[in-house]
């Protein structure tokens, strides 16, 4: 069965795919995503804490010839007197005081500090193509640099975010469901059909 990678599948649809179809779908989605990202007028990468954007500008340009505006939810960058190279609403809020820009040999480097440092961004500007954040592989060196407790917390948050995006229960919701199940087994005389978690 050929899978149409032009449309995003729901978690249920994806789960129904065979291993081969999943691989083909993931590969096609990745190629589409790579092509969309390559067509942007900048490149970007992120960690859970920050987003770094690189914009190519003509070599020899001085900082004073640039127009860069960094606001809590907006970003604008380009050459003075010309249409902006990028402009629009940011995917999420940033810490303006901790965000900076520098010019380095024909590259405008924009560094944004995220307000929510527990979430991957789908895109830089909301009107630009999204990436699949469930496929992000954080740099292992960074994760392994954390102490055991922090690392476990970050891994749990990453798992929970992926589960939420796929419409599946988070680790806490799963734990509560398991506790309820055990309690039901120990107390078969009680009716839990209307039990709700808060």
TrEMBL record:
Tell me which Gene3D superfamilies the record gives: 2.60.40.790
Please state what the protein is called.
Answer: Nuclear movement protein nudC
Could you tell me the Gene Ontology terms of the biological process aspect for this record?
protein folding
Q: Which keywords appear in this protein's UniProt record, sorted alphabetically?
A: Cytoplasm
The compartments listed are: Cytoplasm
Organism this protein belongs to: Spizellomyces punctatus (strain DAOM BR117)
Annotated region (Disordered) at 18-37, 158-198
**Alphabetized InterPro entries for the sequence:** CS_dom, HSP20-like_chaperone, NudC_fam
Q: Which Pfam families match?
A: CS
